[in-house]
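Archive entry. Fields below.
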Amino acid sequence: MSHTELVALSGLLIGLVFGATGQATGFCLLRGLSHAWLSQDGRKLRAFALAMAVAVIGSQLLATIGALSLDEALYLVASPSWVAVPLGGLLFGYGMAAANGCGSRSLVLLGSGNLRSFVVLMCLGLAAYMTLSGILAPLRVWLEGATSLSLPSPSLPGLLGVPAWLPTLLLGAGLLVWALVSRHFRASPRDWLGGLIIGALVPAGWYATGVLGFDDFEPVRLASLTFVAPVGASLQYLMLSTGTRLGFGVTVVAGVLVGALIMALVRRDFAWQGFTGPGQMGRSILGGILMGVGGVMALGCSIGQGLSGFSTLSLTTLAALAGILGGARLGLKGPLALSKVL
Amino acid sequence: MPTPLPAITRRRLIISIGLLVISPLALADGPWLRLEAASNIVGDTQPNTAGLHLDLPHVSEDGSAVPLGLSFDGTLGEDDYLTDIHLFATGNPNPEIAVFHLTPMGGLPEISTRVRLNETQEVIAVARSHRGETFATSREVRITVSGCLMRGNDDQPAALSYPRVSAPSHLAPGEAGEIRTLINHPMETGLREGPNGNTLPRHIIEHFRVTLAGETAFEAELHRSISANPYLRFHLTPTQGGELVIEWQDDSGESAIHRTAIDVG
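PREDICTED_STRUCTURE:
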């Protein structure tokens, strides 16, 4: 088996585990935020925090033992745009609230029979590629060029001039303690197992592309879990597979869909669901488009930046994540809340 | 009641519609005829459009390094072999990408490299055999804006440093061995502006030569459309072993040499 086939196969396996886990545990940043802000139940949010802790500790450990270098990760940009990244995060967060879930959550829901998610995913994939290489790309490239900020270092430890283990330990331990301090969370194995498994899939993704995919002559792009560009790439692959190569992102997307489907059938949780009216459909379309455009501008989604980007200790992640949280907050609570606007 | 069209008019109509359909096809036949450099290689012969294959992605988000594969499964007479394969990018400032010179040792004509394509365009490959047969093929590649932000490449490794070669150490007689090579080189086109606004001087690897036991086994002429840090993959089917010497030579006269041994038997 060639190294590219090995990477594609690992992507499929990682996706299967992600899809099955997400289906069984309901792992979702948006649900975590809405439960925490609207019904004072922090378990889902703590599950996401646990996943962040596991992702950063695992990934930095891989880098420290010298298995791979995370420097090539796309989140570590030396001169990011100080407008596109936080604004993209804001659009993504608001879109996530409008569509009732991020890209990965939509894949899991589609696997469970939710056809609303099909509309979200189509719009997300289309909008992502419109922004990445299509009709909106010149505007994005112009914005990024006009507002690029030259950073002394693309990563948090580099900026502070400290070794990477220090922020890893502080952030990882901080998130871990915050997650586990709640007795309510500890008593909910569904949530902590979900956080633990999905967090561990992030270093697994780096390992698949960075170690299994390592080849001097034909390098594979270093990547881990993310669900904006890969959803668009999956649509493109469906249309152009005779002239494109199957990559990690596309097999992860396929794996999540299949993994969620299998788990939904096993748990007898599969049920067809559709729109109840045009308003709901409009919300899904808007949410998908905002997530596609915003996710590309912010270099990643709630999973891509929130877990994979965070695990590289990149500075763009801090800006993107602040934007995503802010956007979700606007969508859930306050004058712009979707329950009032739409 | 409408009068039926006279038979002759109807027939003429059908013929002219037929011509309308056929003529663009006839014109589209062989983009190599429209590119002078390529049609010079073909000469007066009618190239065979079956046999030579170009493997390129339909869509590429990174025009600076598009993976390109060449393969051949056409029929050639006994003792005949491909002598040279020419690659052209019709939409680049210089259409020539590379020329590969093969020898009877070439065995399996399967070559890979990475090329620069600055816009959506047709890539052409033309091959000639020892006995004068010609083959041609083309493929359209769509180039889109780069998917990710450009990195600041301030600390580029030195030109011609760190040659990497993967070659089999042992081959059975008649077995095709895959050889992969990679070397650090900016392949500066001479068309690009540097950070201070001055045009960066052209600096590219022009010649790539492989000898086995003192005999030329594979050669390539590289042009500006070959990506930075040139990658070349090709095959050799040696009948006897010996020292494999791989040499990269750039336009400043500098060269890098890598030596290894292949044992055949």
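CURATOR_NOTE: DSSP finds 17 helices and no strands in chain A.
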